[in-house]
Amino acid sequence: MKHLFKKGAFPEEFWPISLSEAITAESLAYMDKTAGYLKPLDTDANAEYCVGVCMDEVPVNIYGTDVTPNPPQLRARVCRIGQFSFKATAGDSYESGDKVFIGADEQTITSTVGGNTHSVGYVSGEQDTIATATATDRVLVCVRAPYPATPMN
Predict the structure, then answer these.
(1) CB 45 within 8 A of CB 98
(2) Which of 82, 28, 23 is CA-nearest to residue 52?
(3) pLDDT higher for 21 or 61?
(4) Which of 12, 41, 68, 135 has the fewest other C-beta atoms within 10 Å?
(5) Of 147 and 50, more confident
(6) Could you count the other beta carbons within 10 Å of the beta carbon of residue 125?
(7) According to the model, what pLDDT value does residue 71 have?
(8) Nearest Cα to 143, choosing from 100, 92, 105, 108?
(9) Which carries the bigger pLDDT value, residue 59 or residue 112?
(10) In 3-state terms, what secondary structure has residue 112?
């Protein structure tokens, strides 16, 4: 997790996972209520169910046997609130307090509203303004996961 910057983050919670869904550490994750486990955040529509930043690497089971939901259910650590570093979307600008949305993948954010309606956080006050981001820029983002209203553990 060489790029992860976790500053003043709240304690982690443990969320159910499946070995059929690979999740990379330091990725935004959402709860798939139908499947009953975490998945990498992939769309703005799923951002409504964002639970925070996954702190564990969840590899895919190469043997093809999924152990969920059979007990004991596997779980990954997720941090729901805190400051984290994400890849910037090239061409976007980032200024303190700007809302950010899911970008091209679960480790990238964008400041372009476009059709996005579910913010995953906002640019930290500790982040210097980036007038035009490059693909190598990183942005310090304050994440406060909207789902669920009551944390689970």
Answers:
(1) no
(2) 28
(3) 21
(4) 135
(5) 50
(6) 10
(7) 44
(8) 100
(9) 112
(10) coil
pLDDT band at 1 (very low <50, low <70, confident <90, very high): very low
Task: Count Cβ atoms below 10 Å from residue 128 Cβ, excluding itself.
Answer: 10
- Rg of the Cα trace of the chain? 15
* CA-to-CA dists, residue 94 to 7, 12, 44, 111, 131, angstroms: 19, 27, 19, 7, 7
Q: Which residue has the tokens 């210097």?
A: 128
| Separation CA 92–CA 115 (nearest Å) | 15
pTM metric for this prediction? 0.82
Taking alpha carbons only, the member of 121, 114, 107 closest to residue 92 is 114
Does the pLDDT value for residue 58 go beyond 80? no
pLDDT for 8: 52
**Domain 13-144 CATH class label:** mainly beta
The single residue listed with the structure tokens 């152990």 is 67
